[in-house]
Write a structure and sequence with these properties.
The structure holds two protein chains of two kinds. Chain A is an alpha/beta fold. Chain A has two domains: 302 residues, no CATH class; 53 residues, no CATH class. Chain A is built from 13 helices and 24 strands. In chain A, a hairpin with a 2-residue loop joins strand 3 and strand 4. Chain A is 26% helix and 35% strand. In chain A, helix 7 packs across helix 8. By secondary structure, chain B is α/β, with parallel strands linked by helices. Chain B has a single domain, classed as Rossmann fold (3-Layer(aba) Sandwich), CATH 3.40.50. Chain B has a six-stranded mixed sheet, sandwiched between helices. A four-stranded antiparallel sheet of chain B has the order 2-1-4-5. A two-stranded antiparallel ribbon of chain B has the order 7-8. The longest helix of chain B is centred in the last third of the chain and has 18 residues. Chain B is globular, with a radius of gyration of 18 Å. The two termini of chain B are 31 Å apart. Classes of the chains: A alpha/beta, B alpha/beta.
Chain lengths: 470, 258
């Protein structure tokens, strides 16, 4: 029914406050569809070395040869021929917001990005369509040798460091969407933290899709050297369009001996974005990798942040929140590979499904034979708000060693009528009561966020909870 | 009682309530004014708790007849939150737990929310303004202030939950408070604290109270103005403290069969 569709769109627009689009003139926009010529054009446009062009073309062949995954979410509706694979919004990445083209700057102003940088960040980056349009790092950190640049710039500025690590954690052959990303990748952050350097405030990158039928394929590469530490935060939004966009990123992280990396995501794509992302980290001796993954937006998200614990003493922690509203499917989870003895891991995944929303926890815990004294604790909790909401859990465990300590627990709950009545008897509306229960449910994870992001998270949950609760 | 007209009045007329199709209340008449303490006693299953839940608007309690007004406003047409905005409060026999929401934050959110609805345009209290108020209320109820930072009712003992209900009543400033078996499961010290808390809120805020109980012992600390006996979904006898004393001596039977 046309009226229903309009009502639904209006409802979506009212709750998703980042659904605006801006009229911008791009410098270059590739035609829709993907072929060898487009891959070559992207590489040529970026003036890349031959090895990168070869890498891209090889990845494109792998992408074509791999079948679509048949598990996870419904991928059959993705029309690869109806996507712009490369849109260049401006000539180059700027270090001063004043130099960013006005229309793009307006968008990020509206999203509060420059303000956040002034208030509580050590550095920030912004990607619009296919390219980073802005990147800046505090001078004191630049002096210590920290690199925080657009990844395309890093390929030019630090070719050896780049090539040594690029695609070593997620090779193109890993999965169909990693192959696609490898063929057409553009934008993303490159971070190098030298030995012993601790970056106290977070670095942030904000990813924005603006065009309709856009494909965003950024790659992020983070190298944390020995005894160094960094906290990287990414946020993302897109306008609400009637047809779909695709976001397919690859994130690779290497944490060397004694280093520490926290990677925080607040994913809030509009409900017409397919979000199919491969995120993986490698932790060496006594290193710590901490993924904090919050998924609120998108039509379908398939994302399973992974940590390979490669040497004794390595630690992994993966905390995640997924909120699936009506029409959304959050297929999210975590993967931990214990590839060394005396390694420890924690997974705590919380999901909420509302209306016809569906949330899936899909996880893998693997312990190789001989990896003695590994410890792992996996907890996944699902909360369902309505009768028609759906939640599934697929916690795969492959433990091939006896001398280990593995704990696993999973809970599924519904918002109880008695709990709602209790809160409403104190004067909270039905929606306020349900929001309070949901925010309480995810509190153990939200409290791990820096304060500014925790406040933002609670506000986003409030927005998601708007509309009838059954 | 003084002779001035009571400011707030909850009037229940011929109230009939069914749960899952079964008629529980068969015509209850009762008026509770501010400045009055009413006690309803009666055997198990007589409908005492049902009266509280129905008055607060629990969705499973179907109103099959009668009317309830608060200062002339039709209470039965309202959702539970709107009844709370009017000034009704229910102290639960089994208060619910809410994980991840601290007792202190909950009190502040609920109090500010009620104030906003009762006095539009009023300024919400900041945590710094609200904290000393909570702390004092907790001291009065002999509850350790560490509970402020704990999840609402989670892991509270039975007695702690009941004290927390009285703290809520004190801070949320209702006009008429219903307390459902607030004295059950309490040891003698906790009973005394809870009863004194009720008496203090009553005296300070001049609210009306409807207290449901199985036991005489809370009457050692509270002085009700009216005592009612409920049986089989009706109030079969009303009186003053003398009625409670008669009950204590002779039991329900003589009233029920009479």
């Amino acid at each position: 029914m046309p009226n229903n569709t309009q009502d639904k769109l209006a409802a979506d627009l009212s709750t998703y406050k980042y659904g605006f689009s801006t009229d911008t003139t791009s410098v270059f926009k590739a035609d829709k569809g993907l072929n060898k010529e487009i891959v070559e054009a992207i590489s040529k446009y970026k003036n890349e070395p031959q090895w990168m062009l070869d890498f891209r073309l090889n990845a494109y062949e792998i992408f074509k040869s791999k079948p679509m995954p048949t598990w996870g979410g419904k991928l059959s509706e993705i029309d690869f021929d109806n996507i712009h694979y490369y849109v260049k919004p401006s000539d180059r990445s700027m270090r001063d917001w004043a130099d960013v083209p006005q229309d793009i700057k307006d968008t990020f102003d509206k999203l509060g990005v420059p303000e956040a940088e002034r208030k509580f960040l050590a550095g920030s980056g912004a990607q619009f369509e296919s390219e980073m349009v802005y990147h800046n790092l505090q001078d004191s950190l630049t002096k210590k040798g920290v690199i925080f640049e657009g990844i395309d710039d890093a390929l030019k500025n630090h070719p050896d460091l780049f090539r040594e690590h690029f695609a070593t954690i997620v090779p193109p052959r890993d999965n169909k969407f990693a192959a696609l990303n490898s063929a057409v990748w553009s934008g993303g952050s490159f971070i190098y933290v030298p030995k012993g350097v601790h970056i106290e405030l977070p670095l942030q990158a904000y990813f924005r899709i603006n065009s309709e039928n856009m494909g965003q394929f950024e790659r992020t590469l983070i190298i944390v050297d020995e005894e160094a530490s960094v906290h990287y935060v990414e946020g993302c939004t897109a306008p609400t369009y009637s047809s779909d966009s695709l976001h397919s990123a690859v994130v690779e992280i290497i944490v060397k001996r004694g280093g520490k990396c926290q990677y925080t995501t607040i994913q809030n794509w509009s409900h017409n974005v397919y979000n199919l992302v491969t995120k993986r980290a490698k932790a060496m001796q006594d290193a710590t990798m901490f993924w904090l993954d919050c998924n609120l937006g998108s039509k379908l998200t398939m994302k399973y942040p992974a940590v390979y614990l490669m040497e004794p003493g390595a630690k992994a922690e993966i905390l995640s929140v997924a909120f699936a509203g009506s029409g959304q499917h959050q297929d999210a989870g975590a993967k931990i590979i214990h590839a060394a003895p005396n390694t420890t891991s924690t997974i705590n995944a919380k999901s909420i499904s509302k209306g016809s929303g569906r949330s899936t926890y899909r996880g893998l815990l693997k312990v190789y034979p001989g990896m003695k004294n590994c410890k792992s604790k996996v907890a996944c909790d699902a909360l369902m708000l309505d009768k028609e909401s759906r939640s599934d859990t697929y916690p795969t465990m492959e433990v091939d060693e006896d001398e280990v300590s593995i704990e696993h627990e999973a809970t599924v709950s519904k918002i109880g009528e008695e709990q709602m009545f209790y809160l409403m008897s104190r004067g909270l509306s039905e929606q306020e009561a349900a929001t309070m229960i949901v925010n309480g449910f995810i509190e153990p994870i939200v409290k791990q966020l820096p304060m500014e992001y925790a406040i933002e998270m609670n506000r986003l949950i409030e927005l998601e909870m708007e509309g009838a609760v059954g | 009682m003084d002779n001035t007209t009571p400011k707030n009045s909850l009037v229940i007329k011929n109230l009939q309530v069914a749960v899952e199709g079964k008629e529980i209340l068969k015509g209850v008449d009762l008026t509770i004014n501010s400045g009055e303490i009413h006690i309803i006693m009666g055997p198990n299953g007589s409908g005492k708790s049902t009266l509280c839940y129905a008055l607060m608007g629990h969705p499973n309690y179907e109103i099959t007849g009668g009317e309830v007004t608060f200062n002339g406003v039709d209470v039965l047409a309202l959702e539970p939150d709107k009844r709370a905005h009017l000034g009704l409060f229910l102290g639960f026999q089994y208060p619910r737990e809410v994980t991840g929401v601290t007792f202190g934050n909950f009190l502040r959110i609920a109090s500010n929310n009620l104030q906003k609805n009762r006095e539009p345009g009023s300024k919400p209290a900041s945590p710094i303004q609200f904290y000393p108020v909570v702390q004092k209320a907790m001291e009065n109820m002999k509850m350790d202030k560490s509970f402020i930072g704990r999840s609402l009712n989670e892991g509270f003992s039975g007695g702690e939950k009941k004290r927390a209900e009285i703290i809520q009543m004190n801070l949320l400033k209702p006009k008429i408070a219903m307390l459902d078996e607030i004295d059950s499961g309490l040891d003698i010290d906790a009973l005394k604290t809870v009863a004194e808390g009720i008496q203090q809120t009553f005296e300070e805020q001049q609210i009306g109270i409807l207290l449901i109980t199985h036991y005489q012992r809370i009457l050692n600390y509270l002085k009700p103005h009216f005592v009612h006996i409920m049986s089989k979904g009706k109030i079969i006898k009303s009186g003053d403290m003398q009625l409670a004393h008669a009950l204590e001596k002779e039991g329900y039977d003589q009233f029920i069969t009479a």
